[in-house]
Design goal:
about 260 residues, alpha/beta, Aminopeptidase, 8-stranded mixed β-sheet, about 20% strand, binds zinc ion
Length: about 260
Amino acid sequence: MAACTVVAAVASGITVSATAGAPAVSAPARVGSATSLGERSRGSPRLLGRSAAGRPIRVIESGKAGGARTVLVFGCIHGSECAGMAVARRLAATRPPAGARLVTVPNLNPDGYAAGTRQNGRGVDLNRNFPRGWRALGAPGALHYSGPRPLSEPESQLARRLIIRLRPRVTIWFHQALALVDRSGGDVAIERRYARLTGLPLRRLPPYPGTATRWQNHAFAGTTSFVVELPAGPLSANATRRHAAAIIRLAAATR
Ligand SMILES: [Zn+2]
């Protein structure tokens, strides 16, 4: 995250292009228009809130603030499926297309990540803890324990508040390790485009109870939230670039 720290010092000014080490005039016009006065360019991490065990959960917002077309990316929700964090980090250091806002939460589940578990620090599967179709599943620590009630966990509450505030047109949730793009219930054209851009197949997983995508696609008509299942293991540099580029393309095309 070192790059973000450097950007933080200048992100609020109008000389953001200086972070690229080149004068603004050398930037492509499409990018340059996103750096005008009153708009933000690359963002700096700020605290979204804390996990059940008190670990910080950070969010990085970049691009045009307020009323912009927003694309939201969660790099990790299941603590043992966090290869998407690399994509989120790369995006956080990328200037979004003009008129778009790019928001990334690299890791929504730092407790699970630290422990190497799918669930959060209280043994809850966060992607069974959202309100739409929620059902009591399992017991604490069980692989798909849904928590005592919908939104019982600080992590899912933080995600919900962020989504309500941002109203993202497109939300991407990274998981592993099925290597597919899930037809999650939003605009299938967007899901198909992402699949084509990244070379992953488009498939439909079962509509599990209490998932974040189910809740979003139901609660926010006209928006699209979908799951990207990356392959097992860490993401290669090439794949990281490919996924980040695909998200930028979606952000540019989002209306
Ligand atoms: Zn998962």
